[in-house]
Design a protein that fits this description.
Largest sheet: 5 strands, antiparallel
Order of helices and strands: HHEEEEEHHEEEEEEEEEE
CATH architecture: Alpha-Beta Complex
Radius of gyration: 17 Å
Structural class: alpha+beta
Number of strands: 15
CATH class: Alpha Beta
Strand content: 15-25%
Distance between the termini: 27 Å
Bound molecules: magnesium ion
Number of helices: 4
CATH topology: Creatine Amidinohydrolase
Number of domains: 1
């Protein structure tokens, strides 16, 4: 079932989104060669807690039967796509790192991801990050009353592939509200499903995951970290978005 949010619920989601945005702002301030993803995790967690939020990723059960997710952010470096576990390895100049952050405020979720540059990165890495961000904005352009989920999927896929990259198939965007993952699924590629028609009050986490090479991925033996099979780079860009009667509203910036 797809939930339609009331004005009161949207206000709570704006607050959750604000908390996530502030945590990202802190990451942006701190990110530099030498810092570890564990340190970034601690900083983001402090922001979330100080603003009255609950980190929503911590303790998420493992879909493959491994340990629950142990941190408040996912930190995925270079060829890691999503669900990287923060660790003690210092980031290096030229790395790219995808940081995904989720927070709950009064029972409502916000969820957003960005790929950050560590110091100076290669022009190839920079272009991948830019195209990934731009593909989100192509997608959100379709997040309007009367459009369908597939219109979002198509816009993202076309833009990504036009630019010579591929979209991850194994993981998709999602509805969001009192649960982090609600219906509908929002693939970043066209499937046989048209998907439901969009209505005012739907809230969606639109999140292109874009690979430099092939879309195929593997899961590491920690049963969390998803990596590109070909070892090439991957980038991620996500916002929580509300469908309104006018322009779509981004709740996490
Ligand atoms: Mg998400």
């Amino acid at each position: 079932m797809i939930t339609i949010k009331s004005q009161r619920e949207l206000d709570l989601m704006r607050k959750a989104g604000y908390i996530v945005a502030r945590a990202h702002q802190r990451i942006q301030e701190l990110i530099a060669p030498g810092i570890t993803t564990k340190e970034l995790n601690k900083a983001a967690e402090e922001v979330i807690l100080n603003l009255g939020g609950i980190p929503s990723f911590k303790g998420v059960p493992n879909p493959y039967g491994g340990v629950d997710f142990p941190a408040s952010i996912c930190a995925s470096v270079n060829h890691e796509v999503i669900h990287g576990i923060p660790n003690d390895i210092p980031l290096k100049e030229g790395d790219i790192v995808s940081i995904d952050i989720g927070a709950i405020y009064n029972g409502y979720h916000g969820d957003a991801a960005r790929t950050y540059e560590v110091g100076a990165v290669s022009p190839e890495a920079k272009r991948l990050i830019t195209v990934t961000r731009e593909s989100f904005f192509k997608g959100i352009e379709m997040a309007r009353e009367g459009k369908r989920i597939r219109d979002i999927s198509r816009a993202i896929q076309q833009y990504v592939e036009e630019n010579g990259y591929s979209v991850v198939r194994d993981f998709v965007g999602h509805g969001i509200g009192t649960e982090m993952h609600e219906e509908p699924q929002i693939p970043n590629f066209v499937t046989r499903e048209r998907g439901p028609r969009l209505q005012k009050g739907m809230t969606l986490a639109i999140e292109p995951m874009v690979n430099e090479g092939h879309w195929a991925v593997d899961v590491l033996s920690n049963k969390w970290t998803v990596v590109t099979k070909d070892g090439k780079l991957s980038a991620h860009y996500e916002n929580t978005v509300a469908v309104t009667e006018n322009e779509p509203e981004i709740l996490t910036e």
